[in-house]
Specification:
3-stranded antiparallel β-sheet, 2 domains, alpha+beta, about 250 residues, Heat Shock Protein 90, 6 helices, about 40% helix
């Protein structure tokens, strides 16, 4: 029989913290014994509290910084000859980054769930008759990787809203990720558009395409390819698991 483990922490008036453990262990002839363990964990508790305090302060400062950047951008572009599309594009990208930061803040900047990042990036584009299919195994990304993926999904969704599957009210988008069998474990994310207008490859690549195929690939240490199929845009992103998660694949849920 596996020994049972019960843990209890008690807070005393002097703010000292102690850990009590009681293990029930099996003995011969169906009997049980009890082993009690007691130790002072005050130093560990105070260190954790200090770390949480610093993380909360960091979260607060990051949100303030993003808000300041948004304000500066809005005031700088106000009343200028900059096209409205440029202004709205900059604003939406800043909002997308802020959304990814919100997800990371909820996790104390230790990482973020890939599904949460994708759904947060797609949230501004949800509307009646717009279909999104998001699916894949549970994978936690490092903060740097989470921000890169959020920006890429935002750019793809923005393009779809202007020219692709989200532009005609009847299109559909799927974002699926898998861990295909390869010599080195990789994450593969596939963005697929269907049901939209016919697609033609652009004569020149814009900021969004360069951000995905160059910037995203560099951030993730992998590759990203956008395929302008007539039936809809398909974007494939490949990145080593160890680079984007910081963990070995066997401990991913």
């Amino acid at each position: 029989m596996t020994p049972e483990h019960i843990e209890e922490r008690r807070d005393r008036k002097v703010r000292e913290y102690y850990e009590w453990r009681i293990n029930r262990i099996p003995l011969p002839e169906g009997r049980f014994g009890v082993v009690c363990y007691f130790r002072d964990i005050s130093a560990q508790v105070r260190a954790r509290q200090q770390r949480e305090l610093l993380i909360n302060e960091l979260n607060h400062r990051v949100k303030n910084t993003l808000a300041t950047v948004q304000s500066i951008a809005a005031q700088t572009l106000k009343g200028t000859t900059v096209p409205v599309t440029v202004k709205s594009g900059l604003e939406s990208r800043l909002l997308s980054m802020a959304g990814a930061h919100d997800v990371l803040t909820q996790q104390n900047w230790e990482g973020a769930d890939l599904r949460n990042i994708v759904e947060k990036a797609l949230a501004p584009f949800t509307a009646p008759r717009r279909e999104f299919d998001v699916d894949g195994p549970v994978i936690r990304l490092l903060p740097k990787s989470a921000l890169a993926v959020a920006m890429a999904v935002h750019e793809l969704a923005t393009n779809a809203a202007k020219y692709g599957a989200l532009s005609n009210g009847s299109g559909r988008i799927s974002v699926h990720w898998t861990i295909p069998e390869r010599d080195e474990p990789h994450l593969q994310i596939v963005w697929t558009e269907t049901g939209g207008p016919k697609v033609a490859a652009p004569s020149s690549k814009g900021f969004g395409s360069r951000l995905i195929e160059r910037g995203l690939a560099g951030q993730l240490g992998g590759e990203a390819v956008i395929d302008y199929r007539e039936t809809g845009v398909v974007c494939r992103i490949m990145a080593p698991l160890g680079t984007i998660t910081g963990r070995e694949p066997d401990i991913l849920s």
